[in-house]
Specification:
By secondary structure, the protein is mainly β. The protein contains 2 helices and 10 strands; from the N terminus they run E-E-E-E-H-E-E-E-E-H-E-E. It has a single domain, classed as Hypothetical upf0131 protein ytfp (Roll). Helices cover 13% and strands 43% of the residues. A 6-stranded antiparallel β-sheet has the order 1-10-5-8-4-3, with no helix packed on it. Strands 2-9 form a two-stranded antiparallel sheet. It has a two-stranded antiparallel sheet with strand order 6-7. The longest helix has 8 residues. The chain is globular.
Amino acid sequence: MSELPALSTPSPSADGQHLFYFAYGSNLHPHRLQLRVPSSQPVTPAVLPGHQLRFHKRGRDGSGKCNIWRTDNPADRVIGALYRMLAHEKPLLDSAEGLGRGYQVTTFQLRTLATA
């Protein structure tokens, strides 16, 4: 696996007009994410080490919703995908995910699967 530079969820890209987003759970499906953020494009599979996928959140319909839980155990990992999207569409993602209500922006190290 190759290590990516520290990224935030989302993180600005070099051109300043786009950002990167680590998708997991239902946002892994490109069609679902494009319904929420039209410019989103998958870049590469990625791994977030030292974390687990859990179901601590409850949806409005009562169903379980996944979240990422930090464990600091190097054996734990969340597999997801790195997406690129237009920065001005970030509020669409924030609204869909509930920024401030169980969804927060976090900085972390990712590893790509492309060179594993």
